[in-house]
UniProtKB/TrEMBL annotation:
GO terms for biological process: rescue of stalled ribosome. This is Aminoacyl-tRNA hydrolase. Pfam families: RF-1 (PF00472). InterPro entries: Pep_chain_release_fac_I, Pep_chain_release_fac_I_sf. The lineage of its organism: Bacteria, Pseudomonadati, Bacteroidota, Flavobacteriia, Flavobacteriales. It comes from Aequorivita xiaoshiensis. Gene3D superfamilies: 3.30.160.20. Residues 16-32 form the Prokaryotic-type class I peptide chain release factors domain. One of its GO terms (molecular function) is peptidyl-tRNA hydrolase activity. It comes from the Bacteria.
Length: 134
């Protein structure tokens, strides 16, 4: 993944935001919406695109776009920086390949310890019972 190319491919759109700001909110477009075209991206290889299609299937639109919004701050520039960070973090986390799990067995001493503790517990419980009188 080439981050510089990826950022140049992003499409930004400023929207009027809700939240704090009073009447100022009605005049300025501080919320930022970023659109990333996954299908036509030059920053990602085909294998990376396929991996993202599988992992982000719920976040990708039918046109193959990833759309994120940020309206947390009253500054359009800060919102733009936050949404870029979020998108890059989202892509990086979903591009990681999970390690294969190796099967392991408990060591001989661990097995012996477990069996010994079971015997001690069983003996303890056996001694709690009243003796049998025949």
């Amino acid at each position: 993944m080439i981050i510089d190319t990826l950022i140049s491919e992003l499409v930004f759109k400023a929207i009027r935001s809700s939240g704090p700001g009073g009447q100022h909110v009605n005049k300025t477009a501080s919320k930022v919406e970023v659109t990333f075209d996954l299908e036509n991206s030059q920053a990602l290889s085909e294998t990376e695109k396929e991996r993202l299609r599988l992992k982000l299937s719920s976040k990708i639109t039918t046109e193959g776009l990833i759309v994120l919004q940020c309206g947390e701050t009253r500054s359009q520039h800060k919102n733009k920086a936050i949404v870029i960070e979020r998108l890059i973090a989202l892509l990086k986390t979903n591009l990681k390949v999970a390690k294969k799990r190796k099967k392991t067995k408990p060591s001989k001493s661990a097995i012996e310890r477990r069996l010994k503790s079971k015997k001690v517990t069983a003996l303890k419980k056996q001694n709690r019972k009243p003796p049998k009188i025949d």
